[in-house]
Input
Amino acid sequence: MQKDERDLLEVLKFELQFLEDGGYGRSPRTPWRPQYIFEDSLTCMNYDSKENPGPCSDCVLMQLVPPERRSEKIPCRHIPFNTSGEALDSLYRYSNQQETEETVGAWLRATIQRLEEERAAARHAHSKHPPAGGGTLRGTPLYQKQHPKCANPACPTAFHWTGGGKFFRFRPDPVSATGSNPTADLPGGIHGVRHYWLCERCSHVFTLVYGEECGVTLKLIWSDLAAGETHKELSAA
Output
């Protein structure tokens, strides 16, 4: 079975609709037991695949399971639904079906809203032009933070070796007029180079350039493309 490459947001939206439509009512095939959330839904990557099930570690829902719970036999039963850590594993023991579905429904709505807001913010960041003059966006070195991310400071995309995008290498920023270099203590040091990475989306919109005064900054690719097209038109005329 191929690795689950479904979109998490779409999966959660489907699950919410399935829940609200009464999909977890008593099954004609197993009327003696309540239906299990996720497991008895088309959301499950192994739904109706009992003979050759894929490993739960490949499921798109796994990214919602705490790392310390991913080795459980049924990991999706350990997705926390609130700050108290309530999950299906505990709900099945202490709550009835209606209470369980109400808890899961509230969590699904909140999670869907959060993911939609995060994606809207990311789209806005990708479409946002860097301000002119002194307000240029300085690129974020790849290993400046504990969790490496895209060099676009407005982009939240975390770095991954197989995530595509584009790499850049630059020498550290020059020493300022005050004689200090605020980035000299970053990985790479004053004698080496610093690495930057633009995610796949940002690499189609921006590039990174180096200037003695501003250091490494983002530059909009579109402006270069527009200038090139104008030059072609003038040449043709």
Confidence is low (pLDDT under 50) at residues 129-135, 174-191, 223-237. The chain has five helices and four strands.
